[in-house]
Amino acid sequence: MSDEIFPVPDKWAETAKINEAEYHERYARSLTDPDGFWNAESQRIDWIHPYETLKDVSYDEADFRIGWFLGGKLNICANALDRHLEERGDTPAIIWEPDDPETQARTLTYRDLHARVCKFANVLTVNGVGKGDRVTIYLPMIPEAAIAMLACARIGAVHSVVFAGFSPDALAGRIEDCQSNIVITADEGLRGGKPVPLKANVDAALEKVEVGRVIVYRHTGADVDFNPVRDVWWDDAIEVAAPLCEPETMDAEDPLFILYTSGSTGKPKGVLHTTGGYAVWASMTHEYVFDYRPGQIYWCAADVGWVTGHSYVVYGPLINGATQVMFEGVPNYPDHSRFWQVVDKHKVEIFYAAPTALRALMREGDEWVTKTDRSSLRLLGSVGEPINPEAWDWYHRVVGERRCPIVDTWWQTETGAAMITPLPGATALKPGSASKPMFGVQPALVDPEKGTLLDGATAGALVITDSWPGQMRTVYGDHDRFFQTYFSQYPGYYFTGDGARRDEDGYYWITGRIDDVINVSGHRMGTAEVESALVEHPLVSEAAVVGMPHEVKGQGIYAYVTTNAGTDDNDELRKELVQWVRKEIGPIATPDVLQFAPGLPKTRSGKIMRRILRKIAENDMSNLGDTSTLADPSVVDDLVANRPQ
Ligand code: WTA
């Protein structure tokens, strides 16, 4: 099955914006004539002042810099809203579908959205936010999340959205790192019928770090603590806000947002994106990957707390004048048909989600899907993690009734938008392969040890050999870390952290992270982050965390924990430690398995042999390799003997 190739359906080849011949022609031009190619693509944005230099990039340590569309001036919020008012002011921009299907959906036209964003931008200004200031947004999937982000962009403030599933501690760390003086939140979120105590989480975070202002949107109406000196109700502030707000003139390279993401070491990094290149990149990829034309109903099921929500819920679709569904809930509430009921209710044509949700639904049986209509669907997308051929087949055959191409888009927080992806009218599909590079993207494989470029059908570490407009520009506050993390392993290239295979047709197959990052349900998690949360517990002396295969989540979290001498390693403590990690980071970091380890396998120089820990986590004991170089080989026998089943 996985060898099967699905040719481009005739109808798509005839009608899509990009067919196969056009893909090859444009891809070639994007490399041979970047000035001509990007000059044409940049026209999709309304510039206040045209750019003067397309690109100024060096990956050399000595004069390391990345810049695009230099000298260009624009406002990305005006591109997402104001310029649509004349032609489609009364067209729905966001159709909000609540967690509970009994609650009324809300539709905001481009005119509504514009009016709300202008007012909220004035609220920010009145509360002391100016150009360049950082604004922390901790909101659920409600239109106000997009409104808050766009309002920041309108006045040139830099938003830092923190996923509303993160703990108070994680939130505090992110507020502190970017030194924001304001948090925008809601009383509560709602997911699968369960309230999420957002305001209470903010209050807890603000015991560790101070801000001057908290703006609270009343969403569920729950009773929450309110500090009259520091807190402001969103609605009260809007009521007295002035309706007009001129968009600020921003330089192409002015910061647009910071989004924290996990890396192999240390604390999460503040990935910084700038304005001009990101605007062109998010808009262009959204148009071509989804073959998007205004009027079509588009739904990206990602949360705004992740990069997919930034590029494919907020900026890409709105710049392109899209009509989209924004969904507050979860795929299995009230039942496993929910996604497809929402598709039917709003006549969704283009649907974009993560494989983990599909795998979870696939397990529940086909009937939840087949009892819905889904005849509006034309195109399906996948993002965030490798999609296994079995889930791909189910998505294609059961959800899409073999009628809808699947765009399996590979990209990262760092890359801003889709980098390796099929185009529905151009690319024959191979289940499990992200396939071919987007225009302007030059992927390559290198030998992981030697760093030499590899040719032909082969496997290696995935690098990108030159810059693209939506590339991140720095790690906020730590430019050296930016260089060290991405450009030092393989000099001259951007290193993705992923491994990949390239087949004889030049298709890329992403095999997953080759650094110490794991991908749990499409969410990135640094093993180091989970380890440091564990060792903060007073009874833990050491911890090592690795990924393990997980049927639904893709990868699960396997934690080895060494407790202080004399501690009773019982089940109660195991549960307490699992809860501890949930509290320190958030539910997405919950360890799936926690094994007490009297000792960890270390080399004589003290380095933990993670390779062995991964094998034990995978339950692959036949393949532990050479353990004779360990300081104490017997610890491995102990771990194997005591592996929880
Ligand atoms: C993984 C999400 C295989 C990959 C947009 C990458 C994928 C990490 C795919 C980035 C895909 C994302 N196939 N793997 N289609 N898309 N990944 O920053 O390991 O949350 O490095 O961005 O997800 O995760 P991030």
TrEMBL record:
HAMAP family reported in the protein's UniProt record: Ac_CoA_synth
Family assignment from sequence similarity: Belongs to the ATP-dependent AMP-binding enzyme family.
N6-acetyllysine: residues carrying this PTM: K607
Pfam families per record: ACAS_N (PF16177), AMP-binding (PF00501), AMP-binding_C (PF13193)
Domain AMP-binding enzyme C-terminal: 529-607
Stretches assigned to the Acetyl-coenzyme A synthetase N-terminal domain: 23-80
Cofactor: Mg(2+)
Residue ranges of domain AMP-dependent synthetase/ligase in the record: 82-466
EC number assigned by the record: 6.2.1.1
Keywords assigned by UniProt, alphabetized: Acetylation, ATP-binding, Ligase, Magnesium, Metal-binding, Nucleotide-binding
Record's function text: Catalyzes the conversion of acetate into acetyl-CoA (AcCoA), an essential intermediate at the junction of anabolic and catabolic pathways. AcsA undergoes a two-step reaction. In the first half reaction, AcsA combines acetate with ATP to form acetyl-adenylate (AcAMP) intermediate. In the second half reaction, it can then transfer the acetyl group from AcAMP to the sulfhydryl group of CoA, forming the product AcCoA.
Residues binding Mg(2+), per UniProt: V535, H537, V540
Descriptive protein name: Acetyl-coenzyme A synthetase
Keyword Protein transport: no
Positions annotated to bind CoA: R191, G192, G193, K194, T308, N332, S521, R582
Catalytic activity: acetate + ATP + CoA = acetyl-CoA + AMP + diphosphate
Residues binding ATP: G384, E385, P386, D408, T409, W410, W411, Q412, T413, D498, R513, R524
NCBIfam families: Ac_CoA_lig_AcsA, PRK00174.1
